[in-house]
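Budget justification aside, the reviewers requested a transparent look at the raw inputs and outputs of the sequence design task funded under Objective 1. We therefore reproduce one unedited record. The lines immediately below are the structure tokens for a 94-residue chain.
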């Protein structure tokens, strides 16, 4: 699905666009954490042992199409998304 992320020209363009993203997200993050986000931004795959929340994963997704989002969720969150305990009983007001 994300084969295009292996194309050198696509990677070059993605690398160029990363600078603006990095400026937006780097505050309060370590260089290591920024590089983890960058790896995902370019490849669409969350590196092993790294945790990236679904919100940030969607924000940095290489392919923001419906199919790309479905693929991201399937590959990066194979057990599904878990509702945090503090939201478990939350009900929105009408």
């Amino acid at each position: 699905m994300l084969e295009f992320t292996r194309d050198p020209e696509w990677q070059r363009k993605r690398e160029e666009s990363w600078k603006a993203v990095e400026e937006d997200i780097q505050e309060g993050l370590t260089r290591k954490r920024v590089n983890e986000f960058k790896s995902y931004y370019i490849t669409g795959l969350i590196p092993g042992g790294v945790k990236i929340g679904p919100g940030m994963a969607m924000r940095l997704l290489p392919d923001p199409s419906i199919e790309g989002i479905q693929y991201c969720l399937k590959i990066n969150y194979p057990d599904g998304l878990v509702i945090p305990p503090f939201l478990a009983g939350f009900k929105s007001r009408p």
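The radius of gyration is 15 Å. Residues 3-77 form one domain. Computational costs for records of this kind are itemized in the attached budget.
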